[in-house]
Amino acid sequence: MAKDPVCGMFVEEKPDAIRHTSEGREYFFCTTQCLNEFTAPEEEFKKLKRQTAVSIGLTIPITILTYVMLFPKEINSFILLALATPVQFWAGWRFYKGTWDAIKAKASNMDTLIAIGTSAAYLYSAVVTFLPGFFPFESVYFETAAIIITLILVGRLLETRTKEKASHAVRKLLDLQPRMAKVIREGAEVEVPVEEVQEGDLLIVRPGERIPTDGKVVEGSSSIDESAITGESIPVDKVVGNEVIGATINKSGLLRFRATKVGQDTVLSQIIALVEEARIGKAPMQRMA
């Protein structure tokens, strides 16, 4: 099963599953909402902020009018209905979309629980408002549905902001890696994209350049600034036989080294993978919920 890169849920790789291909890699999503957050995160974040702000602005008077009777009961119920409707069907529309996607996938998710629970409270209250004697109890629960939707939206807003910060950290890590590498091939120095470097290639790094990939020094000596990777503020001396880490900076001498790890096997790539895993991962209590 594939893992949704946005919410971390596992998704079956069915032919009709929601998917998106980016940079040659295929991703699967549990809902179209997760797909939109992946393809247009800034736009979706702005939309979520608007929905959360409006939901909070309407939920506050709903809660006040529920517990402080400022109008006759019948009028009060209609006012609550008018305030709760946009919260339920505008701010909460994402939960209905998620439920529909889950139904099409013959599965269920958190959106399903939210949509069913809040809809039950809203529809019951709407019936009581229009038909007061239809049920034996005449209390309305518009504030219950509104508070649930608002709290979930606030939680998702905070989660999205945290993930955005983590994504920014990943982008900064990606910027550390040089785009080109100088490789010795057939006795000549050639410059190639770092993606074309192969394990065992002999590379040259001059002073002031970033080391393109992990390797072992075979000629020369220098001081390497590894602060971006290890946090060590003092440059580390490297001589023949020492390991060097990709994305670190050669400070002084010319180095020739042989690539030992390339692509996803480098230290930098593993750090990025760990950050990404932490970004989309869930705590045990979240998985239980």
| Arrangement of strands in the largest sheet | 6-5-7-13-8-11
| Straight-line distance between termini | 20 Å
Percentage of helical residues?
A: 40-55%
Rounded mean pLDDT score: 86
- Poorly predicted segments: 284-289
Q: Provide the number of structural domains.
A: 2
Main pleated sheet: 6 strands, antiparallel
Strand percentage lies at 15-25%
Radius of gyration: 28 Å
Textual characterization of the structure:
It is a single chain. The protein is an alpha+beta fold and 289 residues long. The chain has two domains: 40-174; 179-266, Calcium-transporting ATPase, cytoplasmic transduction domain A (Distorted Sandwich), CATH 2.70.150.10. The chain contains nine helices and 13 strands. The strands form four sheets. A six-stranded antiparallel sheet has the order 6-5-7-13-8-11, with no helix packed on it. The protein has a three-stranded antiparallel sheet with strand order 10-9-12, with no helix packed on it. It has a two-stranded antiparallel ribbon with strand order 1-2. The radius of gyration is 28 Å and the shape is elongated. The two termini are 20 Å apart. The relative contact order is 0.10.
Q: Could you name the key traits of this structure?
A:
alpha+beta; 3-stranded antiparallel β-sheet; 6-stranded antiparallel β-sheet; 289 residues; disordered C terminus; Calcium-transporting ATPase, cytoplasmic transduction domain A; single chain; 2 domains
